[in-house]
Amino acid sequence: MEDLLEQTIHGLTLGSMYAMVATGLALMFGVVRLVNFAHGEFFMLGAYTFWFAFQELDLPYPVAGLVAAAAMAAFGGVYQRTIIRAILERSWHVQLIATLATSIVLTNLAVIVFGTQAKEVPTRLSATVFQAGGLRIAWQRLLVLGASVVIFAALHWFVKRTKIGKAMRAMSQNREACAVVGVDVQRVALVTFALGGLLAGGAAALVTPLFNIFPDMGALLTLKAFAAVIVGGFGYVHGAIAASFIIGVSESLAAGYISYAYKDAIAFVIMIAVLLWRPQGLFGRRIGI
Amino acid sequence: MLRWSGWFVGGVALAVMPWLVGAAFPAQQRYILHILVFTGLFAALALSYDLVVGHVGSLSLAHPAFFGIGAYAAALLATRAGWPFLAGLTAALVCAGLAALLIGVPAFRLAEHSFAIGTLGFALVTHVVVTNWVEFTRGPLCVTGIPRPVIGVGALSLRITTVPHYYWLALTALALVALLYRGLTTFRLGRAFNAVRDDEALAATAGINPLKYRMLSFVIGAALAGGIGALYAHYITVLCPEELTIALTVNLLVILFLGGVGSLRGVVLGAVLFTALPEILRVAPTWRLVIYGLLLLLMVIKWPEGLDAALRRAGRRPRA
Question: What is the ipTM of this complex?
Answer without folding.
Answer: 0.85
